[in-house]
Amino acid sequence: MKVRVTQIKSGIGRTLRQKQTLASLGLKRINQTKEHELTPQIQGMIDKVNHLVKVEEI
Fold first, then answer.
1. What SS3 class is residue 39?
2. How many domains does the structure of the chain reveal?
3. 51 torsion bin: left (phi>0), alpha (psi -120 to 50), beta (else)
4. For all residues of the chain together, what is the average pLDDT?
5. R_g (Cα) of the chain, nearest Å
């Protein structure tokens, strides 16, 4: 299953770990979207920054 991850809030003022997680997901700016295969690793990253991103199944 693939998911589309879109950054909806800024990483400014967030912890370094959250910023690095956004970078690992390939997100650099608000409204940027990346598609990922939903693996346990990707799901874990999404869970850690779920307040900063929007996730849609495709």
1. coil
2. 1
3. alpha
4. 97
5. 10
